[in-house]
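Researcher: Structure for this, please.
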Amino acid sequence: MKIIARALDDAARQLSATSDTSRLDAELLMAEALHIDRDKLILSPPDKKVPKRFWQMVKRRGKGEPVAYITGRRAFWNIDLHVGPGVLVPRPDSEVLIASAIEHFDGAAPDRILDLGTGPGTLLLAALDVWPDATGVGIDVSRQALSYASANARRLGFERRLKLKLGNWAQGISDGFDLILCNPPYVADGAELGPGVREFEPDEALFAGETGLDAYRALAPELPALLKAGGLAAVEIGQDQAGSVTALLARDGLEARVADDFAGRPRAVLLTWV
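Model: Predicted structure, token format:
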């Protein structure tokens, strides 16, 4: 038990130079190395030697590689997703889209859900978990991302409830949807990012032109034709983009409001019919 505790302290010190969450990173990596949950590691740490694999993982994290790539999984909302190189790592900030949808439907449920830029299936699979009678469509431009989404859907038992399509946003989609979810790339090309993000995560899931607004410009004319009456489109934004994205997306009869993430930062534009 003391051996594990000392190793966690040592790893956290090593990672503090490159990570703002060094202790959490160390705990997640140790739990993975020991094949136990982090809760068990904290509440009842085993009296075992530290696996050599743990220090190998710490070394990778020290070079900036995301913890989710190292462990191969990431928790999001109430589900666990398998992720890896080539897909965007799910962020807790994105959970505001699911929370906003639950608030909007207020005990009711959407029948059809569309996830534009689904990545490893993050938003779509979380929504299907919330509403067990719903079906959905996930679209992404990356075949690699769709392979992760397909594997995650199969592992979670949602495979028969969704279709995954290779495509550029909603091109070729003519159906109406009760709930549209989208976490597009919104980082300006020259923006500074945290350690390891630019080096490891896919550019196409991060960057959207000189001002970070290119994806919203592409989405703006597509959303009104896809959203059903009484439905909701929830689109993630950067924390300084509320005004500019609202101006782009509030069109053709759609009304926009901004939702904050759990840290109180503007994180989503919510679109409904006036």
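Researcher: Any notable elements?
Model: The two ends are 59 Å apart (CA to CA). The first strand starts at residue 73 and ends at 76.
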